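ARCHIVE CARD
CATEGORY: sequence design from structure
SOURCE FIELD: tokenized fold
FIELD CONTENT:
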């Protein structure tokens, strides 16, 4: 692995607007992406299932046409349960070009009603992540192993290596990326930032060694946070990850734009 990460990260793959729980509208977030020098930004408002997407995707397309920044229509879906079922189906997935999936307070067996034992909890984490990774709609797991604020909690050092290897192998085999998220430390309030970095770097090594691609995102909920990727860079530097480990979000968006035009997205 390279000893130094990239000097500058070119895109932000995880941004929220007032269409879900963000504080600023789409136009402000796109303008902020331009202001901080991003070449590409993905709008990934939460998608719980059933919300209309067509009009929102149309608005993102209009923002893309009006900006020098490439604006990618996406969503952040929730992993619903320990089987890895997600809140976006194939039909809805065809409308967007980028799908994150995450654990949340609504994830049965993880965010709510977890097993009584840590072994059972981590088993659910593994099966949920592997199930989501096998879903062709899902492009990346958002802030993986964000397990420090749920009723049952686990920090990175609590994750068995064999579990990590199995999840990494599944993600690599299915082309599912691992998000390095700028606010990942927030999910582990019992750890200092230094402790979190020390614990997550070995996890990143397992996924890199398995050939999993990474993606960077701010998880911005305000326009002021768009493109704030300093902690992402710190983690990449600490883990020895370079640009060659990141997916090319611009290329992926362009390819999927062509697939959508031909009606082949997720075909």
């Amino acid at each position: 692995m390279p000893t130094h990460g990239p000097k500058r990260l070119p895109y932000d793959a995880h941004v929220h607007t007032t269409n879900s729980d963000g504080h600023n509208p789409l136009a402000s977030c796109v303008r902020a992406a331009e202001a901080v020098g991003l070449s590409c930004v993905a709008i990934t408002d939460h998608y719980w299932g059933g919300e209309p997407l067509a009009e929102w995707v149309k608005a993102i397309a209009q923002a893309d046409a009006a900006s020098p920044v490439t604006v990618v229509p996406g969503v952040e879906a929730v992993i619903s349960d320990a089987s890895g079922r997600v809140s976006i189906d194939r039909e809805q997935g065809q409308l967007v070009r980028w799908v994150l999936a995450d654990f949340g307070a609504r994830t049965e067996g993880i965010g709510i009603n977890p097993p009584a034992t840590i072994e059972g909890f981590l088993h659910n984490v593994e099966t949920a992540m592997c199930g989501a990774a096998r879903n062709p709609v899902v492009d990346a797991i958002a802030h993986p192993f964000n397990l420090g604020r749920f009723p049952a909690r686990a920090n990175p050092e609590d994750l068995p290596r064999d579990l990590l290897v199995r999840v990494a192998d599944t993600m690599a085999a299915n082309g599912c990326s691992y998000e390095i998220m700028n606010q990942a430390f927030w999910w582990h309030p019992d750890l200092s930032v230094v402790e979190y970095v020390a614990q997550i770097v070995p996890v990143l090594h397992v996924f890199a060694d398995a050939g999993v691609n990474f993606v960077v995102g701010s998880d911005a909920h305000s326009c002021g946070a768009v493109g704030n990727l300093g902690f992402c860079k710190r983690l990449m530097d600490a883990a020895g990850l370079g640009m060659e480990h990141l997916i090319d979000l611009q290329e992926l968006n362009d390819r999927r734009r062509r697939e959508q035009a031909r009606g082949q997205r997720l075909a």
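CARD ANNOTATION: Strands lie at 11-15, 40-47, 70-78, 98-102, 140-141, 177-181, 214-217. The mean pLDDT is 95.
SHELF: design records, drawer C
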